[in-house]
Amino acid sequence: MGFSKILLVESRTDIRAIQQMLKKFGKEHQTLLLPLGGKTLINDHSDTEAQLLVLTRITAPSNTKALIDRDTDGPTNTLDPARTAFQNLCRKLGIHCHVLEKRALENYFPQRAIDLGVGSGHPQIGDFGRQNWGKNNNVKIRATPHA
User: CB 3.0-4.6 Å disulfide test: which of 36, 100, 110, 131 passes with 106?
Assistant: First the structure.
């Protein structure tokens, strides 16, 4: 199929931003990106387990990874129970699930990349702030040479 790894990401808006990151490392053609749809699949429901099991038929569980947002207001806040359950489900299936240390992908963007991607007037949001430029603009920010 042309890829050797599957990377599950938080949402469809994260796919293009993550593609830009993979492109910078020459890995964009090796990795199939699939959206989890936020809480649609980030849970421990039996249908989520069934869908993840299908992926393990496509490639080995060790070649499937999940990257999800922390989605908390601070470093000491506990994960939402659904996120913890999803992380445990992945562990059970042999899929590595990485929870971001900061709130979400856009919390890692430096100010220069934000300015180049969506224009000045959008301050860097820190580790747990919420973005104010629309998640669809994350790809523009990630595509900048300094992101």
Answer: 131
- Residue 125 belongs to what domain range? 5-142
Sheet holding 64-68, edge to edge: 31-35, 5-9, 64-68, 96-99
Whole-angstrom distance, CA of residue 26 vs CA of residue 92: 31
Q: What is the pLDDT of residue 144?
A: 78
Domain count, the chain: 1
* Position 135 in a domain: yes
Within a domain: residue 86? Answer: yes
Q: Which residue has the tokens 């980030």?
A: 42
Quote the CA–CA distance of 68 and 51 in Å, as a whole number.
Answer: 17
Q: Is residue 147 part of a domain?
A: no
Q: Is residue 95 part of a domain?
A: yes
> Band of the pLDDT at 142, cuts 50, 70, 90?
confident
pTM of the model: 0.88
Q: Which residues contact 70 (CB under 8 A, 6 or more apart)?
A: 79, 83, 99, 100, 101, 102, 103, 104
Q: Where are the alpha helices (DSSP H) in the chain?
A: 12-24, 46-58, 81-93, 111-118, 138-142
